[in-house]
Design goal:
Elements: H1 2-11, H2 20-44, H3 57-80, E1 102-105, E2 108-111, E3 114-116, E4 122-124, H4 129-143, H5 150-154, E5 158-161, E6 166-171, E7 175-188, E8 191-203, H6 206-223, H7 225-237, E9 241-244, E10 250-253, H8 254-271, E11 292-296, E12 304-308, E13 314-317, E14 334-337, E15 339-352, E16 355-366, E17 369-370, H9 385-388, E18 390-400, E19 409-414, E20 417-423, E21 429-435, E22 440-445, E23 452-456, E24 462-468, E25 472-480, E26 483-484, E27 489-494, E28 499-504, E29 509-512, E30 515-531, E31 534-543, H10 547-550, E32 554-563, E33 566-582, H11 584-588, E34 592-597, H12 606-617, E35 622-625
Length: about 625
């Protein structure tokens, strides 16, 4: 009977005189309902927006889906490009320092967080979380117009996205919050709505991965653990210093030494990790990092290995004397000491689940020792002091040779200092302040155009008109003796301020602008030239035996140095050079650049190979545009 009574009570409406507990239950339910509604509004970006009619809701849901997808895309770009969506200014390397400001990883540029510039200046370009948020907001804002509403237009919807778009992004450990502000007008029939604020929250470990990456980077700058591993590799896999008891010279092939070093660097770098016991040699043990950390290097990446003293491709260490009284034992010794400069990149990948944040660093050994450590704190790259004093108003106009405006990035170079100024507008004009300098250069860079430098002093301001030469992509067809050639060749296009190199046949196109070029073609064919072993005599003065030696008298001792035989398997067998002015009309009206050269006798002796280089200097090229 009790159960029946309870059922009856629940079936009746609540009355004012019912118990206080029953009223409380309904209050809680009401709070939960309101809370759920508010949470939904927050997650869908509708808080503060008018209620969206049911007929229009699918259109708005599509917009939010677009924003979510664009946010995820932007996050992946940030993670794959070291925290950048829009890459910082590119800086090339030099023959002294091979690093540019970006690592080419699987065809994609990844900005270095630490590198050494071509003029031997240590540089950092570590993004801040704020800059990442700004770039992500800009990226998502620019992608709004790409959202596809075609199916809704066919149903009769009117959809209008009004500009400008402002954004607010918050990157947190496990999520990214993106809010865009712009008027979205949606209408169909008699129903319409204007939504001004749009918010999406995406699950992502970007913030956590970035924080751990900063810890790995700071640990490297503090302790130089990568350089210390490199010193171990150098001393294990290359002759550095020591003494050998032998009476014959010691000879190493420098190319073989470098090959062994590159292989050892690649393998040992891949073995590094952030896990294992304290006694695990390959455990880098970065404090505070729990994610999986990988270290990558490839012998195919740009690197530099130098050693001295060397004799061409050989490292030779000669005997320096005998120990008196031990001659009957044939006792001689060969001391050796070689000094190396080793520079190579390491790509660090910090992973959690299916997300990976990566950034490259340059590893540098100078004179067999690690480089000088930085102060151990990651900071964004800052301009030199020269660039901080911009107080001269200058107007820069950029246009092509036909007078059409070009949107270009503008910088100013003065005695080795380069300052980023800004970007010209769609009309090709930039009004901004420049640092003062006499005989500095205004530099304009734009996609599809040759970088242009214009001499201009900024002491008193003024205006600069920069004419930029368009680059044209031309297919290359190489011919040898008027027959299409598909073998190995190197093609060089060199002008006063511009050069291009083509490794043929892997590369079959080149971008050229109008100008005077020195064109050189080197055709290589397989051959087998043996440079026989040679023996040279080395003589040194040594103390005379007995009392005469004590008195400082010396005598000459001679010994033979044997250089092993060498085999040349790829030799010059054709080519030539030609100086030619290339017109823009030739570039714009053609598809293919045809280069015809002459063959040379395939050399089978070192004398014939030397003769080919003499013939090369007298051989001209036939260059035609088709």
């Amino acid at each position: 009977m009790k159960n029946k009574g309870l059922s009856q009570v629940r079936s009746r409406s609540l009355l004012p005189n019912q118990t206080k507990g029953q009223v409380t239950v309904f209050i809680i339910i009401a709070v939960l309902v309101v809370g759920t509604a508010l949470t939904y509004a927050l997650l869908r970006g509708s808080l503060g927006n008018p209620e969206i009619p049911a007929d229009i809701q699918p259109v708005y849901t599509t917009l939010l889906s677009c924003l979510e997808q664009d946010t995820l895309t932007g996050i992946r770009v940030l993670e794959s490009q070291a925290g950048y969506i829009y890459l910082p200014k590119f800086e090339p390397g030099s023959k002294y320092m091979p690093f540019s400001s970006q690592l080419n990883f699987l065809g994609n540029p990844v900005p270095y967080w630490y590198y050494v510039s071509g003029n031997n200046i240590q540089k950092e370009q570590v993004p801040t979380k704020t800059s990442m948020e700004t770039q992500l907001g800009q990226f998502v804002s620019e992608k709004v117009d790409n959202c596809n509403f075609d199916s809704y237009y066919k149903q009769g919807f009117e959809i209008n996205l009004e500009k400008p778009v402002t954004s607010s992004v918050s990157i947190q450990n496990n999520k990214v919050d993106v809010t865009l502000n712009f008027n979205l007008n949606i209408a169909i029939g008699n129903e319409s709505v204007i939504v001004k604020k749009h918010n999406v929250i995406v699950s992502s470990d970007l913030g956590k991965l970035y924080s751990s990456s900063i810890k790995v980077y700071n640990e490297e700058q503090k302790s130089l653990f990568l350089e210390n591993y490199s010193v171990d590799i150098l001393r294990l896999y290359a002759p550095v210093d020591g003494v050998e008891v032998t009476c014959s010279p010691m000879v190493w092939n420098a190319n073989k030494v470098f090959d062994d070093l590159q292989e050892a660097i690649e393998v040992n770098t891949l073995a590094l990790k952030n896990s294992g016991g304290d006694k695990d040699y390959f455990n880098v043990n970065v404090p505070g990092v729990t994610e999986d950390v990988r270290f990558l290097n490839s012998r195919n990446w740009t690197s530099s290995l130098e050693v001295s003293p060397s004799d061409g491709a050989l490292l030779v260490s000669n005997p320096v004397g005998n120990q008196q009284g031990l001659g009957i034992l044939g006792f001689c010794y060969v001391p050796y000491h070689f000094v190396y400069s080793v520079k190579y990149p390491v790509l660090v990948q910090v992973s959690s689940g299916d997300e990976t944040f990566q950034f490259p660093m340059a590893v540098v050994l100078q004179n067999n020792n690690p480089r000088v450590s930085l102060n151990g704190t990651a900071i964004a790259e800052s301009d030199s002091e020269f660039c901080t004093y911009k107080n001269t108003k200058v107007q820069v106009s950029t246009a092509d040779t036909d007078g059409h405006a070009v949107k270009a990035d503008v910088s100013y170079e003065c005695f080795g200092n380069t300052c980023a100024i800004g970007t010209t507008s769609e009309t090709g004009v930039l009004d901004d302040n420049f640092p003062q300098c006499v005989n500095g250069y205004v530099i304009a860079k734009a996609s599809g155009f040759k970088d242009t430098k214009y001499l201009f002093s900024t002491v008193s301001g003024g205006s600069v008109n920069v004419i930029m030469d368009k680059l044209y992509n031309k297919n290359i067809q190489l011919k040898v003796d008027n027959v299409n050639y598909n073998g190995e060749a190197m093609i060089y296009f060199t002008s006063q301020d511009f050069s291009k190199t083509v490794a043929y046949p892997e590369q079959r196109s080149v971008q050229l602008a109008e100008g005077q070029y020195e064109v050189q073609v080197y055709v290589y064919k397989n051959t087998s030239i043996t440079i026989g072993a040679t023996t040279t005599q080395q003589c040194i003065n040594v103390p005379r035996a007995g009392v005469l030696g004590i008195a400082g008298l010396e005598e000459k001792k001679c010994f033979d140095i044997a250089v092993p035989a060498q085999v040349i398997s790829n030799a010059l067998a054709g080519g030539g050079n030609q100086s030619q002015y290339i017109l823009e009309s030739e570039l714009s009206s053609s598809n293919t650049l045809e280069i015809n050269t002459k063959s040379l006798p395939t050399p089978d002796t070192i004398e014939k190979l030397q003769n080919n280089y003499v013939l090369f200097g007298d051989s001209n090229l036939d260059i035609n545009f088709k």
